[in-house]
Amino acid sequence: MYDAIVVATDGSETGTAAVDHAIGLASRFDADLFGLTVLESRTDYDNAIVDPEEVDRRRREQAEEVMADLESAAAEAGVDVETAVESGVPYEEIIAAATARDADAIVVGSRGRSSFKRALLGGTVDAVVRYADRPVVVVDGPDEDGDGSETGNDSVPE
């Protein structure tokens, strides 16, 4: 069913849940796994009084740590993985990676590090789901029980 899977993560809780899910799929189907994190070209610091080179250096270090964690988790599960840190518009880079690797699916977390920012910008996940030409698996994080509806809340034990 799956020969190649792309997982995109920013290291958030839902991003980590997406990584775990993608590793499970890759293990089950003996699929190639490609992990990706994207340094967004526009940042919260664009107009701040900080050294942009220092901000870029720190963001890249954090992204490389996220990819190192993915590599460790994959190795522990016996799954080979290739990883990359890209720069650009996240949803475009995620879709481009899936296209370049002829991935059968893209796995993403349901929200990134800033849900407020997501609401303002329209959301990377929303854009991936909307524009991808292949299945997108959206994974909730560990604390996302139910959908917030009355029925959902009634069905989730407290």
TrEMBL record:
Alphabetical list of CDD domains matching this protein: USP-like (cd00293)
Origin: domain of life: Archaea
Residue ranges occupied by any UspA domain in the UniProt entry: 1-139
Region annotated Disordered, chain positions: 138-158
Family: Belongs to the universal stress protein A family.
Protein name per the record: Nucleotide-binding universal stress protein, UspA family
